[in-house]
Design brief:
- The structure is a single chain.
- This protein has 64 residues and is an all-alpha fold.
- α2 packs antiparallel against α3.
Length: 64
């Protein structure tokens, strides 16, 4: 079973497909961090303005 799974992954890569979740847009993330650091908007407002989710924003805050 694992051999067939690996073969499927390799075939998908050959077709130009990658597995996993898509990476979030770096420009949106930078904008969200600037808004957060300015302390003029709530997290909910930042989420609505940039499209960056709350959990993603908090993860980026703790990383930096």
């Amino acid at each position: 079973m694992s051999e067939r799974t690996l073969a499927g992954f390799e075939a998908a890569r050959a077709r130009g497909r990658n597995g996993g979740r898509p990476v979030s847009d770096q420009k949106k993330m930078e904008q969200a961090l600037k808004l957060y650091n300015a302390e003029k908007h709530t997290v909910k407002e930042i989420e609505e303005l940039t499209g960056v989710r709350r959990a993603t924003l908090y993860r980026a805050i703790t990383k930096s």
